[in-house]
């Protein structure tokens, strides 16, 4: 029993249970509720997991009230300023920043696993040209399980690590292939002399008939966006990866499930949603009308890119990305009225009582879409970009979960509100 505990008493029966208080390094302590069903016969009710810690983790810490985001203890602001995506991925996976040799070895591994099996390329032919890239990502990443399954020993740490490397390396190749399929251009093979973001841009935008020079502005901006999106502790997609992984499923199937969870507009799909929304709003005069829609509880319209389950003052990633957004637009010479519309919307919403009262601030996705657009990345690929970046976080959590000697299958309970037991009635008597 932990030295600190709480006593929970059932006021109907007078029975009590002592619940240990679990203390982390930072953040709220957590009540261990495992004893409640046995002692009192109750489950705990926490729909959408607003207050439930589903696991212990050493990877990422968020303080939503203070706008703090730490990866393995390092503030996101410092990583964004000084690190690169591959180094951040190493940090997430291994827990420490790499020394020069470790970095060289890791980045070499990631560079050299970029090719996909030739027969996987044929999978793309099965998709219609207008299939959403996220649907292709889910399918093709899941299909990697067909190539890496039989020889995979889920009890061998080395095998798990190789799977993690394959995922980080191959996802850009698959993402670019999804894009090429959607525009009817040949799939471009990766180039291992390029770094992670350069290679992605090269595979997306080069064609076999002419030379292509990767824009350093685009590669630098992507690198920063990927650092900002690399991990975000137990969000919907990461929890999905952990839940699927807890069954012992193939890692490529787990990441495919994470991609599915990310796609929704309340999560990673919001960056695409921001652009669709700005298109719909059309011009500054229409902002008040759309703000009224967002406030109307009978209207499903929400201000995309606003609000966050955890951040209630500001999203530290949004502060960094907002600045970069201006820099990219200046460096690329983009004169986009959509950007002015976005900035006006941000200004008006931040003064609006409804948004102020509910602490709804622009999140990272409000700005990332604008940057992607300025870099020439098509809107339907925005969430794919998020998925690529988040893969390092997903695999880190999956590896952490797989290494937990006390790990059990994830299996939530429910509060049943359906019909009580009743007898079957035959069709002619209904
Ligand atoms: N527009 C209008 N109203 C909103 C919005 C919004 N974007 N977000 C929240 N609200 C309202 C919500 O209706 C509720 O109102 P009331 O108290 O009157 O019922 C109140 O604000 C509090 O919301 P909440 O319950 O704290 O929100 P949540 O934690 O359930 O959901 C969210 C968080 C991000 C899903 C939600 O804010 C949302 O749907 N935002 C738009 C989509 C978006 O930008 N998602 C990207 C999230 S950041 C990237 C990532 O990590 O996934």
Q: What are the main properties of this structure?
A:
430 residues, mainly alpha, Rubrerythrin, domain 2, three-stranded antiparallel beta sheet, 18 helices, 51% helix, globular, binds carboxymethyl coenzyme *A
Helix run count: 18
Give the percentage of residues in beta strands.
5-15%
- How many DSSP-defined strands? 6
Mean of residue pLDDT values: 94
What's the architecture of the domain at 5-53 in CATH terms?
A: Single Sheet
| Fraction of residues in H or I helices | 40-55%
Could you name the CATH topology of the domain at 5-53? Rubrerythrin, domain 2
Q: Tell me the overall shape.
A: globular
Main sheet, how many strands, which sense, barrel?
3 strands, antiparallel
Oligomer: single chain
* Structural class based on helices, strands and sheet pairing: mainly alpha
Organism: Cycloclasticus zancles 78-ME
GO cellular component, one term: cytoplasm
Pathway: Carbohydrate metabolism; tricarboxylic acid cycle; isocitrate from oxaloacetate: step 1/2
Protein name: Citrate synthase
Describe this protein's structure.
With 430 residues, the protein is mainly alpha-helical. It has a domain at 5-53: Single Sheet (Rubrerythrin, domain 2), CATH 2.20.28. The chain contains 18 helices and six strands. A three-stranded antiparallel β-sheet has the order 1-2-3. It has a three-stranded antiparallel β-sheet with strand order 4-5-6. A hairpin with a 4-residue loop joins strand 4 and strand 5 (68-71). Helix 10 (236-245) packs across helix 18 (382-402) and helix 11 (251-263) packs across helix 18. The longest helix is centred in the middle third of the chain and has 27 residues, at 157-183. It is globular, with a radius of gyration of 24 Å. The site of carboxymethyl coenzyme *A has 20 residues, from helix 17.
